[in-house]
Amino acid sequence: MIDPDSIHNKAVRIEKLLTQKFNVKARSLPAAFRKVGRRVPKHIHAQAGVLFQAQSFVGNPKLARRLDAQQIDKAFRDVQTHLIGIDPVDHRIGAVLGAVGAAVFNLLLFSVVLLTVLTWRGFL
Hints:
The chain has helices at 4-22, 29-36, 42-57, 61-64, 69-84, 88-121. The chain is mainly alpha-helical and 124 residues long.
């Protein structure tokens, strides 16, 4: 039999990791994963789905018998390992560098177009 407190503790740990890594605040684990969206791969969302199902089944004794403790533990380990490996500072740096790169590209493109137009008009 699966202990309801252990399922709840695992869900709380995953929610805390999501808050630390992605600054996501949600009332439940499924809501937190919806907010994270594509920042987490599909297979991690699938493993989180196992935890969601376990969380909803554990309150009902007949449904709780259908749960596989090994599958739940594996899903928890996979999600936890992935979330621990995420560096939020690196994500922020990547986002800033991406925005700066886009701005520089647009500035270069604008200057090439401007020089081309000025050359065609005979100002250069």
